[in-house]
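Sequence, structure tokens quoted for completeness.
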Amino acid sequence: MSLLHPAIFGLGLAALALPIAVHFLFRRRRRPEAWAAMRFVLEAYKRQRKRLRFEQVLLFSARCLLILLAALALARPMLGADGAGASGPVTLYLLVDNSIAGDLRGEGLQGESALDRHRARALALISGLDEGRGDRAALVPLGAPASGVVLPPSPDLGAVAGLVRDLGLTDASADVAGAFALVAQDAEASSGAGPVRVALLSDLYEGSADTRSPLASLPSGATLLSPEAPSSGVANVSVRSIEPLRSVLVSGRPGAGGSGGVTQAVVTLERAGAGANAPESVRVRLSAEVVDELGRQETGGVTGLDGGDRAASLGEQVARFAPGERSATVAFAVDLSALPGRGREVVLVAQIDRDRLPGDNVARRVVERREALRVGVVAQPRFGERPAIDRFTPGDWVRLALSPESRDASLSARGREIEPVDVPAGAVDTARLSGLDAAVVAEPEGVDATGWAALRSFADAGRAVVVFPSADPAAQRWLGAFEQAFGTGLTIDPEPRSAGGDEGGRGFPLATREGEAGVGGGEGAGLDLFALIRAELPALAGSVTTARRLEIERPRAEAGLGARVLWSFASGAPLAVAVRPGAGVGEGVEGSPGRAGPGLVVVFASPLDLGWTDLPARPLVVPLVQESVRQGISAARPSRLGVAGASLSLPRSASSVRTLTGPGAGATEPVREGEHRPRRSAGVVAALDAGGGSLGAVVINPDADGARTDARPPGEVRGWLASAVGDEERLVSLDGAMDASGRSERDPLAGSGLAAWLLLIAVVLALVEMVAARGASHASVARAGRGAGRRGFGRGEAA
């Protein structure tokens, strides 16, 4: 049993001194007076003394008990939820779900949100606490990552209630496990001896109740309040992603024509809840917002293409779900070359109509539009006219593959989408690489250790490096310096392997089927550079024969390498591998930077040399080299995509971040070592260097995983919650303490109230005491005696 108002009970105990004082004060001895008739009175008193003393003790006890019951009733004793013997000030931890799931509305789209209901419940629980008793409350919002807005708990209940009222929504998922860890840590460090109550205020749909994440154990004796887990889901459609086929689009110089600024964007939708078994059509709109670099520096804003606040529409499609389908996709043709504005970066925005959970109805993606790509060719520069093909060097073949139109001298360099820039192999340094988007090392034997280090720094800045072997048939001595600088972890035999009798004189043929090509391997997610040409690769690869190649060991998934095989020989040996710089740190590569980051390296097994392979003279060489460069540039860029609630990865040279859209637009915050604090709201930010120059825009999308509105089995959720308190008996349902209107009838942790019963007993006892006191006073006997005396005296006078 516990008391809501122990101070009142203490005053009641002090009040017991009153009847005790009265009892003893009126029992003082009086001086006896001799009186002859007193002998008969004393004889009668002795016969009645035991009964009179019993009556006095009974009345005294009844009066004390009456005061005690009244004090106990006013102190409001409680039995039940806190367990036997629980006493002292209550500590209440409020875990309020303000995640993206808190935006879930009722049947009417304008109805109250789930967060409104959670706030009302939190305020009802706070109102059941007593500041006079020393009760405290803490507030831990669940929007990832969970953080203590009020932690440790505060005795200022009014201030906590004000923060609950002001609690806003986030676009992140619910971090229930993180919140429990915070509560467990604080409760363990707390010295309070009173009961601990933890109220989890969430709807507990699949997006919030991640039962795969273990919960921290709460202190022994703590009680967990939570609503009942739902038995059925709520219909909802979310925008999962928007994926452009190319994230860097090249439109060509003005007036050059071409369709380089055209791409395709695929929007993926996902639905959940009760409506997933029925057909459904959802309208999807795609628009674009141009990030104006000048405007960004001055105002920090994302402007509409027409100079206003509206984004330019790129079209509208209808996504159709078949019965039972959970996901659907629609494709949009996007022509960025036709968009006005000077900005190089465009934010694509995919949006659906408003539904019961509007927080997940939009997704964004940044794409770049460029007039041309500048690619350095690390080889001996070529001066004058090109020689005959049989005298081409590897550098000549690379230049030709990058700009095949350059064979026509009448074409102006203005029309090139890729501009080759000569970088002498023996003079590779940071200055020469500055301003390039990618580098193709065609003659690696001429690059020294300093040059490889400069190329590594170039890659770390979010650039792509494509490396071909040396055309020298001797051992590839450059491999040691290359691996020392890049730390790829790839195993490459420096001795070239020549085709022998085993190949029947056909050399090393390329794979002509995708399954035979062995695409994949390792853990190189996002490194599929040949995805757009994969359908054509088998037909183009059939005519290519290779007489000599390097043996590259296929990366293994268990090796932890961020690598991917792009295409293979028919034997399964890799032709080209894409790998992140620093991916081989786990292999103990000395000099590697410590972890894989941005940047990309593509390593080929054969050089562009007719002595090794006839690939340079085949049509395959152009798409192979161009896709390695174009898609490599896109894949090498630091991530332009973030998720609300997760850490934001930025370029390593970023020193600050400016918010372009969303809460706090225009504000600038510092960045440390390329990592920025998690942002709980969706929007667009710009990474800035030390001089305030833009390093690129980054979009932060809502966490669609946190918006999943399917229902998990209630027993699974209850067991998950019970693991935090050790026993399901320590779980108290919030729903059981709510009436039909949703208002709290009582404090669900207060237990059974005894005040009303105690008051009733006190009233009955008071009535009994009044009757007993009147009977014990012998007033009727006294009146009868006085009447008899008066009657006798009268008769005597008459006599």
User: Anything to note?
Assistant: The chain has four domains: 2-80+755-798, 91-231+711-750, 236-371+640-707, 387-416+463-636. The mean pLDDT is 82. Residues 13 and 749 are 27 Å apart (CA to CA). The first helix runs from residue 6 to 15.
